[in-house]
């Protein structure tokens, strides 16, 4: 996986317990077009507290161009922003 | 009571490693801790001193407190990053949160230092050294920065132990280790011994902490008064203060000061800056529910000479206008007409605000000024600190409130253990 740290627009689902589950997101690709990526599976969820900045880390799998790829998505709790961190 | 077990947690080059971890998290590729780098104020605003340095920067003999251009001359490739106090506060809070999971009694001594009382916990939680290692590793894994843990039988020895060797280490300093571990250190390493005391001690041929411990305390008291006794006790590892829960430090005085972007040459501008400082410091005074009896003004000239002047008031006050009046008088009395680089206002001899002795010479509208101040404080609290400012500041030359680091609950280092 390569470090990207791209801000993305996210559709997520918040359950009764306060868990946040990312569903799908879109980002601008090289040609400045919106690409939508659907998250097929969440492999791991972890809270990262480095430097006191809380970030929820999700390791997920998605199908991109017919190929299953692993990626890391992060949700920054202080700013409520989503990032495609690694792919 | 048996011997206590106190731990001292100290973040290694705090400002710098926090910034480094934050940068790495936001996608930076270089680790500031691995290259020569410093955290420093901006040079244009003349706050250009080194606040923290990385370990590679230390190899270039860069000192904390040094001017940035000097540091750059020692190492031309030096990376300078601006300070970010809200980040430091966040890091400090998350460290505190982590520590509360383990310890009941925690004292935040400064933004990057904590004291913990481990007395009586050995039975249930095991050897202090083991626990210290566990905590240290957990901080590194969870928060991403390294800390030093010092273990001693009081706060002083714990703090001294933490300074022994850095980074990411655990050290002990028990009473039987005092002579081998602490005494050979140079005397300026001892807590509370700064530049000036160091010079005085040098004249007495006291070079190591051991020398100081073995000196006759009467000689020290003759030279340094009660302070001599204090550092003699410290050199012998004697210190008995408890670990306060929270960050309670009895306040003795408060002040704000600032280095000004330009050299001040006329009285009016100086007064304006003093007013801005007085506004900050008086707001803090009222916020802490205190009134002050002594007002002091300090002036540093462009040739770096510093002098100050203070006065005891007839009665305690917390009113901005009254304090400012005295500040102006003090300034006019002491200023010798040089160019001014740095100004400071300090209030001491504090008392509870409720009990204020009235005098025959009180300002006529004292009560009304008190209400005015209260209202202004209230508006600033609700709508931000620049929501109401004095008309004199509207030209924008001087900021209406000067002093502090701009972070509300920022805990400064204290000289009281």
Automatic annotation (TrEMBL), chain A:
Protein's UniProt name: Uncharacterized protein
Entry superkingdom: Bacteria
Lineage: Bacteria, Bacillati, Bacillota, Clostridia, Peptostreptococcales
From TrEMBL, chain B:
Taxonomy of the source species: Bacteria, Bacillati, Bacillota, Clostridia, Peptostreptococcales
Family: Belongs to the DNA polymerase type-Y family.
Binding positions for Mg(2+) per the UniProt entry: 10, 112
Record-linked CDD domains: PolY_Pol_IV_kappa (cd03586)
Protein origin, superkingdom: Bacteria
Protein name: DNA polymerase IV
UniProtKB keywords: Cytoplasm, DNA damage, DNA repair, DNA replication, DNA-binding, DNA-directed DNA polymerase, Magnesium, Metal-binding, Mutator protein, Nucleotidyltransferase, Transferase
Biological process according to GO: DNA repair; DNA-templated DNA replication; error-prone translesion synthesis; SOS response
The keyword Nucleotidyltransferase is annotated on this UniProt entry: yes
Cofactor: record remark: Binds 2 magnesium ions per subunit.
HAMAP family in alphabetical order: DNApol_IV
Active-site residues from the entry: 113
Biological source species: Alkaliphilus serpentinus
Purpose: Poorly processive, error-prone DNA polymerase involved in untargeted mutagenesis. Copies undamaged DNA at stalled replication forks, which arise in vivo from mismatched or misaligned primer ends. These misaligned primers can be extended by PolIV. Exhibits no 3'-5' exonuclease (proofreading) activity. May be involved in translesional synthesis, in conjunction with the beta clamp from PolIII.
Cofactor(s) for this UniProt protein: Mg(2+)
EC number: 2.7.7.7
PROSITE patterns: UMUC
Residue numbers marked as site, Substrate discrimination: 15
Subcellular location: Cytoplasm
One Gene Ontology CC term in the entry: cytosol
Record's subunit section: Monomer.
GO molecular function list: damaged DNA binding; DNA-directed DNA polymerase activity; magnesium ion binding
Record flagged with keyword Transferase: yes
Catalytic activity: DNA(n) + a 2'-deoxyribonucleoside 5'-triphosphate = DNA(n+1) + diphosphate
Domain UmuC, first and last residues per copy: 6-194
């Amino acid at each position: 996986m390569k470090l990207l740290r791209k801000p993305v627009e996210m559709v997520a689902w918040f359950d009764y317990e306060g868990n946040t589950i990312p569903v799908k997101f879109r980002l601008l690709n090289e040609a400045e077009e919106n690409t939508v990526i659907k998250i097929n599976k969440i492999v791991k969820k972890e809270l990262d507290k480095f430097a006191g900045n809380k970030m929820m880390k999700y390791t997920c799998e998605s199908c991109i161009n017919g190929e299953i790829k692993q990626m890391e998505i992060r949700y920054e709790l202080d700013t409520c922003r989503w990032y495609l961190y690694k792919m | 009571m048996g011997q206590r077990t106190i731990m001292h947690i100290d973040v290694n080059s705090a400002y710098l490693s926090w910034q480094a971890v934050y940068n790495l998290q936001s996608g930076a590729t270089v680790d500031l801790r691995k290259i020569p780098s410093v955290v420093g104020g901006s040079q244009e605003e003349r706050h250009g001193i080194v606040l923290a340095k990385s370990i590679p920067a230390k190899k270039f003999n860069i000192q904390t407190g040094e001017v940035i251009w000097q540091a750059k001359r020692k190492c031309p490739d030096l990376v300078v990053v601006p300070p970010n106090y809200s980040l430091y506060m966040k890091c400090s809070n998350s460290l505190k949160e982590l520590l509360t999971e383990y310890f009941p009694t925690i004292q935040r001594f400064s933004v990057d230092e904590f004291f913990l009382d481990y007395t009586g916990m050995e039975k249930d939680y095991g050897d202090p050294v083991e626990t210290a290692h566990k905590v240290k590793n957990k901080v590194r894994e969870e928060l991403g920065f390294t800390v030093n843990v010092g273990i001693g039988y009081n706060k002083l020895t714990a703090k001294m132990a933490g300074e022994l060797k850095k980074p990411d280490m655990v050290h002990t300093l028990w009473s039987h280790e005092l002579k081998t571990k602490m005494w050979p250190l140079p005397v300026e390493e001892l807590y509370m011994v700064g530049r000036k005391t160091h010079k005085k001690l040098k004249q007495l041929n006291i070079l190591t902490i051991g020398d100081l411990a073995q000196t006759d305390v009467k000689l020290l008291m003759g030279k340094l008064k009660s302070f001599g006794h204090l550092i003699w006790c410290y050199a012998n590892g004697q210190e008995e203060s408890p670990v306060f829960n929270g960050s309670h430090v009895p306040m003795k005085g408060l002040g704000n000061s600032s280095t000004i972007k330009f050299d001040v040459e006329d009285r009016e501008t100086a007064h304006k800056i003093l007013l801005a400082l007085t506004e900050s410091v008086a707001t803090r005074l009222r916020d802490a529910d205190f009134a002050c009896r002594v007002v002091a003004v300090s002036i540093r000239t462009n040739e770096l000479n510093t002098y100050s002047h203070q006065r005891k008031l007839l009665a305690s006050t917390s009113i901005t206008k009254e304090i400012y009046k005295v500040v102006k008088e003090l300034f006019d009395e002491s200023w010798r007409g040089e160019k001014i680089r740095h100004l400071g206002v300090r209030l001491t001899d504090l008392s509870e605000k409720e009990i204020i002795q009235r005098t025959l010479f009180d300002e006529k509208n004292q009560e009304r000024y008190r209400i005015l101040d209260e209202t202004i404080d209230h508006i600033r609290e609700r709508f931000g600190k620049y929501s109401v400012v004095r008309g004199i500041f509207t030209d924008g030359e001087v900021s209406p409130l000067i002093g502090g680091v701009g972070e509300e609950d920022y805990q400064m280092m204290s000289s009281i253990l």
